[in-house]
Amino acid sequence: MDYKTHLIVSVQNLIKTEQILFTSALNLCMFGELRKLDEAFNSSDEVVFNLELLKSVDDPNVKHLVEIIEYLQKKTQALINLNHLNENDLTNEYNF
């Protein structure tokens, strides 16, 4: 593997980390401040959640996670731009 491949894998890992943190923050909301919203939906309902929803809650733990997510997004995008990575680069799977 070369340098660029390791760089791409690093960016992919940052994206995965962002997704994990988003899910964690959403779970905190759904078991805390947004519990009543969670109870209003059936398990078969499809609901789209985004960062704006997470920003709207008062839970300080969620707010910290949102700050980290936004920082990761900013730095991930900087790496993508700096290294001229494209969607194809980021969706490929690399095996070590």
UniProtKB/TrEMBL annotation:
Protein name: Uncharacterized protein
Taxonomic classification: Bacteria, Pseudomonadati, Bacteroidota, Flavobacteriia, Flavobacteriales
